[in-house]
Write a structure and sequence with these properties.
single chain, alpha/beta, 2 domains, four-stranded mixed β-sheet, three-stranded mixed β-sheet, 3 helices, about 25% strand, globular
């Protein structure tokens, strides 16, 4: 027997706002029935799993034990600039002089995620 990962769930203070951020990150819409003030919101990713945002009363207080690694369809640095413009904050910079490495960002509620090099950037250095 096996199980599929159906949702990756984010505990958050404002599900609709945070889902909106991740909707812009992924280019996928929020579910049509999600509204501001709802206790949950979802961004369905093609091929799954969904990103599910659930309201909790407490704020994030420690480093994530699980995070997403994003591989953009543009360069890593272009995507980092775009995500910062969307409201992410930079947490750590692991870029190396040879062009490898990644950047750690946090979403508007402090959930860390990494931006890796694009497939084209990886192929160019292989």
């Amino acid at each position: 027997m096996t199980s599929l990962v159906h949702n990756i769930t984010f505990d958050c203070r404002d599900p609709y706002a945070l889902a909106g951020f991740w909707s812009r990150v992924t280019g996928q819409p929020l579910s049509a029935d999600d509204q501001p003030g709802d206790p949950e919101a979802v961004v369905a990713l093609p091929g799954g799993p969904n990103l599910l945002f659930i309201r909790v009363p407490e704020s994030k207080s420690v480093k994530n034990r699980l995070h997403l690694d994003l591989q953009p369809d543009v360069t890593r640095d272009e995507e980092v600039r775009r995500l910062l413009d969307l409201g992410a904050t930079q947490v750590d910079d692991q870029r190396r002089p040879d062009g490898t490495g990644w950047v750690v960002l946090a979403d508007p509620e402090g959930n860390e995620f990494c931006v890796e090099r694009s497939a084209a950037e990886r192929a160019a250095t292989s």
